[in-house]
Amino acid sequence: MGDDDTREYGSRAEARRAARSGGGGGRAAGRRRAAGAGAGAGAAAANGRKRLVDYPRHDRYGWKRWVPSWKQVTGICLTGLLFLLGGSAVAYALVEEPNPNEAAVQQNNVYYWKGGSRMVAAGSDTNRQRVGLDKMPMHLQNAVIAAENDTFRTDRGISVKGMARAVVNMATGGETQGGSTITQQYVKNMFLTQDQTIKRKFQELFISLKLGDREDKDKVLEGYLNTSWFGRNANGIQAAAQAYYYKNAEDLNASESAFLAALLKGEGTLNPDYGPKQEKAARERWAWILDRQVEVGLMDASERAKYTADKFPMPKPQKPATGLDGQKGYMVNLANSFVKSELGITDKQLGMGGYQIYTTFEKEKVDALDKVVKRVLKKNLDPKNRPEDQHIQVGGASVVPGDGAIAAIYGGENYFKHFTNNADYTGVQVGSTYKPFVLAAALDKGVLDPNGPGPDEQPDDMRTPVSLKSIYNGDNKIKLYEYDHKTYWQNEDGEQWLQPNDGNQSYGPVDLREAMRLSINTPFIQLGMDVGLKEVKNAAVAAGLRDDKSMASLTPTFSLGTSAPSAIRLANAYGTFAKSGEKVEPYSVLKVEYNGEVKYKHETKKERAFPADVADTVTDALRTVVEEGTGSVAKEANLGRPAAGKTGTTDDNKSAWFAGYTPQLSTTVGMWRVDSTAKTQEFLSMNGVAGLDSIHGASFPAEIWTEYMKIALKGKPVMQFPVPQPIGDVVYGPGQSPEPEPEPSETESESPTPEPSASPTKKPGKDPKPSPSTGETCGIFGCVDSGGTTTGGTTDGGTTDGTTTGGTTTDGGTTDGTTTDGSTTTGGNGNGNGNGGLFSGGGG
């Protein structure tokens, strides 16, 4: 055979090519192909050509080469599982509990009336009030566990089956499902967003595992029930209990608990508020939850039998979202100022919520004051047909003597219509309601020795305490003496002034009781000079008024009420007289809790402002005012019990007040005009209001006071005031001594420059020129415009340590309002006014 005949083909491909080319016969070719194939395979095996990963498979042909073997499939699965487990272990180790969403921890603050009933929840857009698990009854916990996750107490915090179903549905575009444990739902509420994505589901898985291992189950359940949505704008079980049943979570029964647990599945489809279809679904879900509790061993069948279908706990009607309307906004602001001051927290911290604030406000008294004010104004005012009746404002407050608790306030028509709290600092001067402090200073410290050194240098033992029988000149437009009774008071330009009385009436010599009864200006402006204006101010501060900017100018008319204490402060200061000279600070909050933990509890601190006989003598004089004088609207025959009080009206009839008290309650009511919408804020005259020539404290303020106090004290025992012991000496004002003093020479009295004075003290500051007046309150400076008011920016009853810095008055709590002499400075809530110029105080 030739070389070609004996050649062996190394592969099947070569054999095929040879066959096509015609080399050799058929049988020979076949033999060569077979021999070549065997040799090729053997050579491959001999040379170790089999691959480590036999894929595509070497011993399969066609499509079968691409089908992996069972060994390969098993290996792939095991490898994937190892990677999954390893990755999960790493992810579990690395994941940390994230910070809670701000929305999840934000709550409302809840404010309570005195007595503990709920007043309002406010402070954030989220209606939530966190409560501890101890405030969630066991039947509520059982209902939720039975409905949402019956293995909650024993599982690791996740449901693999539920998670897988949710992931598949999301991946395929199907309906999203929860399938989550209570722990997973808590994680979603507390830490994650509410979007339905695969990424979020895996985050939920790992955080839930970590939380399930670390966190106590009770804490998880508590967190879940405090962060869940129940509808009716209620976040958390406490808000839900209030929204649906008007009660706290701890007071829910088992049937009500089952209904609220039903809402967790989907408030939109199970809330009877939405219609019959939803009510039917709610009834079915409620019954199922009760049955389910029996099924999983969380309720006895006998207990379940009590809740038949006809006893479905239909929710109470949904309350309108009243929020801070009416007087509530004013009260909440007062309480907030107090809380921030006492706890040392910021607006932002308070705004995050979680505080339970128990106030001093008594609902019955607040409602009564609000109704009486509105009834009196509606009866007498006609703003549509009488322009003078427009822009009338009223402020009022009641304080408990000897305690300081603010029982009621009237801040204005409605918090959403008039934001300035009229019970708080407004810059409204109080007129003759200031005269009792002049009397208190005279009774306590006494008048200066006319022959002694000046007020700052004269020792106390040279002073002479006065009695109510002391005599002063009550004539109209008398000249004002210095304390020495020899020189007339003059301003820096050597100008002298005449002090008018109400209606320009003259009364001749009068004792101090009579001067108080008729609210005669001239005796008290001279008495203030005789005592010393610093002592008058000290007496007012000792009684409880703030030493604010309105007390900075100690000109003679200071004694007639040029300062502007708030209604709260004035009521509390009068309460010092009611309590025989015992002073307390006004306050608006009894107790503060934060998420159930007590953070503050009020303790009343008392101090002696005046000797008891001094305070009781002031009360005795103010009893005369009520029984026989300008305040007779409030006399015992009308009120039904003894009361003491004082009227007050200011320059140009721009404000009118009545402040009075019984042993149990001290109340002030003020009335003024100011257009809060005007570009320039200023007090307006009340002449012509209600068709009257002028408004006095004896009119609407006293009427409101009397009608309100009748309601506020209804059912309270009638208490008598202490009978004061005689104190002081009978002293005589200038020209009123048993041996009349000579009148100063005309040269002296008419001198355009100041004459030498026996008093080395600095003269009071210059005052504006007078203008003619016929009113009781024009004062020695004439009818001087006040220049405006200061409204907003300070809070009474908020702190115990108010200060004055520059032009900003701090009356406890807030410091937003400022005053600028003679001009308007808007501060606080934007309703501020300047406090320039001087009122002359007033009479009745």
From TrEMBL:
Compositional bias per record (Gly residues), positions renumbered to this chain: 789-800, 825-844
Biased composition (Basic and acidic residues): 7-17
Catalyzed reaction equations: [GlcNAc-(1->4)-Mur2Ac(oyl-L-Ala-gamma-D-Glu-L-Lys-D-Ala-D-Ala)](n)-di-trans,octa-cis-undecaprenyl diphosphate + beta-D-GlcNAc-(1->4)-Mur2Ac(oyl-L-Ala-gamma-D-Glu-L-Lys-D-Ala-D-Ala)-di-trans,octa-cis-undecaprenyl diphosphate = [GlcNAc-(1->4)-Mur2Ac(oyl-L-Ala-gamma-D-Glu-L-Lys-D-Ala-D-Ala)](n+1)-di-trans,octa-cis-undecaprenyl diphosphate + di-trans,octa-cis-undecaprenyl diphosphate + H(+); Preferential cleavage: (Ac)2-L-Lys-D-Ala-|-D-Ala. Also transpeptidation of peptidyl-alanyl moieties that are N-acyl substituents of D-alanine
UniProt keyword Transport present: no
All copies of domain Penicillin-binding protein transpeptidase, residue ranges: 479-666
Matching Gene3D superfamilies: Biosynthetic peptidoglycan transglycosylase-like (1.10.3810.10), DD-peptidase/beta-lactamase superfamily (3.40.710.10)
Region annotation (Disordered) ranges: 1-42, 727-844
Keyword Membrane: yes
Compositional bias ranges of the Low complexity kind: 750-762, 801-824
Biased composition (Acidic residues): 740-749
Domain Glycosyl transferase family: from-to ranges: 123-292
Transmembrane segments: 73-95
Alphabetical keyword list: Carboxypeptidase, Glycosyltransferase, Hydrolase, Membrane, Multifunctional enzyme, Protease, Transferase, Transmembrane, Transmembrane helix
Name of the protein this chain belongs to: Transglycosylase domain-containing protein
The species this protein was found in: Streptomyces thermolineatus
